[in-house]
Write a structure and sequence with these properties.
Blueprint: E1 2-8, E2 12-18, H1 22-32, H2 41-75, H3 87-122, H4 128-204
Antiparallel strand pairs: 1-2
C-alpha cells in the first residue's frame, strides 16, 4: 500500500492511494468527511491522522488473524504424545508470519518519520488544534509499534511450535529405528540358536 498527499495549503489537498483494499479505502474516506473546507496545516495533519488510523486498524486485524492460525497450531498438540505434523502448512504459515512482521516493521519506520515531520511542521503553527493532531499521530504511531511487537511475538511462538514439531518427529524416527534394531537383534539371536542344529540335522539326514 502506498499513499501520496499533494497539499497546497490555502487551495486544495489531494490524496492518492495505491493498492489499498476497498474496506480500508472506505474507512479512510469516512474519516476524511468531517474535514473542514479551509485547507491549512491542521487539515493536512488530520488527513495524515485519518490515513494512519486506518492503517493501524488494518494491521491490527491482520496480526490477530495470523495469531489465530498460530494459536490453532498450538491447541492442536496432544500433550506429550507424538503426532503427525503438516510441515508444509507450517512452512506456509511461517512465510505469511514473516511477511507480516516485515510489513509492520516498515510501517513503523514510516510512521516514525511521519511523526517527526508533523512535529517539525507544528513548530510553525503551534495552535491547540495542530498540537492535538500531532499528539494523535504520536498515539497511532505508538500503537503501530506495539502491533509490530505482537507480530514478532507471534513469529517466535510459531518458530517454537516448528522446533517442537521437528523434535517430536526426530523422536518418532528414533523410536522407530530402535524398534527395528530390536527386531533385527531378535532375528539374529534366533538365527544363531537354530542354525547349528539345523546344519547338523541336515548333514546327518539320509534318504528314506
Amino acid at each position: 500500500m502506498t499513499f501520496y498527499v499533494d497539499a497546497q495549503l490555502g487551495c486544495s489537498i489531494t490524496v492518492y492511494c495505491f493498492d489499498v483494499e476497498p474496506a480500508l479505502q472506505a474507512q479512510i474516506v469516512r474519516s476524511l468527511l468531517p474535514v473542514a473546507s479551509t485547507v491549512d496545516l491542521s487539515v493536512l495533519l488530520s488527513i495524515q491522522q485519518a490515513i494512519l488510523q486506518g492503517l493501524v486498524s488494518w494491521f491490527d486485524d491482520a496480526v490477530w488473524r495470523v495469531r489465530d492460525f498460530v494459536r490453532s497450531v498450538e491447541k492442536g498438540r496432544q500433550g506429550s504424545q507424538l503426532y503427525n505434523t503438516d510441515f508444509v502448512y507450517l512452512h506456509d504459515l511461517a512465510r505469511h508470519t514473516i511477511h507480516t512482521v516485515e510489513c509492520t516493521e516498515i510501517a513503523t519506520d514510516m510512521t516514525n518519520q511521519l511523526f517527526n515531520s508533523a512535529e517539525s511542521m507544528a513548530r510553525s503553527d503551534p495552535s491547540n488544534e495542530v498540537n492535538q493532531h500531532v499528539a494523535m499521530i504520536a498515539f497511532w504511531a505508538s500503537k503501530l509499534k506495539n502491533i509490530h511487537r505482537r507480530a514478532q511475538a507471534v513469529e517466535k511462538r510459531l518458530l517454537n511450535e516448528i522446533n517442537l514439531s521437528e523434535n517430536k518427529a526426530s523422536k518418532n524416527i528414533s523410536l522407530a529405528m530402535q524398534r527395528d534394531s530390536s527386531a533385527m537383534k531378535t532375528i539374529a539371536i534366533v538365527t544363531l540358536v537354530l542354525l547349528p542344529p539345523t546344519f547338523v540335522s541336515v548333514s546327518r539326514s539320509t534318504d528314506i
